[in-house]
Amino acid sequence: xxxxxxxxxxxYLTLEELRQLPEDTNxxxxxxxxxxxxxKSVLLNEQEQKFNDSESAIASMQTSKEYLEKQIxxxxxxxxxxxxxxxxxxxxxxxxxxx
Length: 99
What we know:
CATH architecture: Orthogonal Bundle
Number of strands: 2
Mean pLDDT: 92
Number of helices: 3
CATH topology: Helix Hairpins
Radius of gyration: 26 Å
C-alpha cells in the first residue's frame, strides 16, 4: 500500500506541474535512459491513468486488509474457545518445545 501511495503522490505532483505548463511547451517522457518528445496531453493522460490505477489498487488492498484482519480476529477467538473447552490441550501445547 505504501508503494502505491507513493506512486499516487508522484503522479499527482507530476499532474500538477504539467497542468501549469502552457499547451505549446515541449514535454518529454523518459524511456530508460532516453527522453522522447511527447505532446503534453499524452503525458497528462498517462499520469491521470497512473493516479487512478493507484487509487483503485489502494482501495482494493484496503478492503483485503480489513477482511484479513477480521479473519485473524475470528481465528484468535476460535483458538481461545478451543483452549478454554479443553484445558488438557492447552497444557499439551504449552509443554511442546520448538526445535
